[in-house]
Design brief:
mainly alpha, globular, 119 residues
C-alpha cells in the first residue's frame, strides 16, 4: 500500500550508491529539473513524516520504517532543529487540531527541505 515500487530497478543487491545516483541524474536531466543526491530525499521524507507524528507510537513506526532499531537514532539524524526553526515550528503548531494543510503547501515545504538538505 504505502511502499515505493519501480519496474526500472533490478532486484539485486547494490554495493554502493553510484547506480542510484546515475539513475537519478539521468531522470532529472530528462525531466529538466535539478539533480538532488539520493539521501536528500531520505532527509525530506523523514522530516515530513516526523512533522506529522501525533504520538510516540507514530514516532516509533516512522523510526522502524527507516530501519532504525532505536527511536534515538531517527531523532538524532533527522529530528534536530536550529533555534530559529524551533520558534517557527511552535508558532505554526495547531493546538486546536482543526486546521489541515493543503497539498500545495506540503509540496512547497518539501521543495524547501530538498534545497536545505542537498546531500
Amino acid at each position: 500500500g504505502l511502499t515505493f515500487v519501480s519496474n526500472d530497478i533490478e532486484p539485486f543487491f547494490w554495493k554502493g550508491t553510484n547506480s542510484v545516483r546515475k539513475i537519478l541524474k539521468s531522470r532529472a536531466a530528462e525531466a529538466g529539473v535539478k539533480y538532488y543526491h539520493p539521501h536528500s530525499f531520505r532527509h525530506s521524507a523523514a522530516y515530513l513524516a516526523l512533522k506529522y507524528c501525533r504520538n510516540g507510537e507514530e514516532l516509533k513506526a516512522i523510526s522502524q520504517n527507516f530501519s532504525h532499531e532505536h527511536l534515538r537514532t531517527t531523532m538524532m539524524s533527522y529530528g534536530n532543529l536550529d533555534d530559529r526553526h524551533v520558534g517557527e515550528v511552535i508558532r505554526e503548531m495547531n493546538f486546536a487540531g482543526t486546521e489541515t494543510k493543503s497539498e500545495s503547501s506540503i509540496l512547497a515545504e518539501l521543495e524547501k527541505l530538498i534545497k536545505k538538505y542537498p546531500k
